Here is the input.
Amino acid sequence: MSITAHWYDMEVDMLVHCLTLTFTESATTADVEAFRDAIARLPGQVGVPLRTRQGPDLGERPTNADYAVVSEFASVEDFRTYLAHPAHLAVPRDHVRSVHSVQFHVVEPD
Here is the structure.
């Protein structure tokens, strides 16, 4: 059974984009801050997402990623606009070693 078999039949309230990343060993505090600041500016530059939360991992588990970004979008179209926008494409990634992401729909019960 596919988990996403019937997502298109749901009345969707928002799309959530979760990103985890690991920085290179050579990444400095300034590199991480430049990444953080660029992500924080995106809503004002792109007009979407509705909300973004981000921060470094707390170090509770040694296998965790270094950093996470969670963004909420009103629609799939807004998410695609965000991904293709020049400001998003310009986010500094020189010191990012790996990235994993997942997107899911949030359906609020009536």
User: Anything to note?
Assistant: The radius of gyration is 15 Å. The beta strands are 14-23, 51-56, 67-73, 96-106. Residues 1-7 have pLDDT under 50 and may be disordered.
